[in-house]
Design a protein that fits this description.
The chain is mainly α. Helices cover 67% and strands 8% of the residues. It contains six helices and three strands; from the N terminus they run ααβααββαα. A hairpin with a 7-residue loop joins β2 (79-83) and β3.
Length: 142
Amino acid sequence: MRRAASDPELAEALLELCCVIEGIRGTTSREFGLTPQQAQLLTTVAPQELTHGELASRLHCDKTNITGLVDRLVRRGLVRRQPDPVDRRAVKVSLTDQGTELVTRFRESVSTALTGHLASWPAARHQQLVTLARTATEALSM
């Protein structure tokens, strides 16, 4: 049975889930001495190099916001800027070794928090959630 194009119950459930996950990520980011926005930028950069424009697009914000975030993370030694070999006007942002290590620990901490809350679920339910989450993410990214 196909649902109506407007499904407030589904939208509400997804928004609630998003808020809970963002709360866990926000708490974890502060434990690592990061703002939630800095943590989001770091996890978006890993493991590639992205321009300010690509970061702004992926983080759904203005390039001027990216400049300030990157400036602060450069000062902390977590990211570096390098000239784009293809476009000399552009700069690529990548993680330093320290940034890579921090992102690894951050992701492990968020993963532990999330899976800890769902530890009582049976394995089949875990797999259903993984499948639904990936499918929903793909559909919403289009």
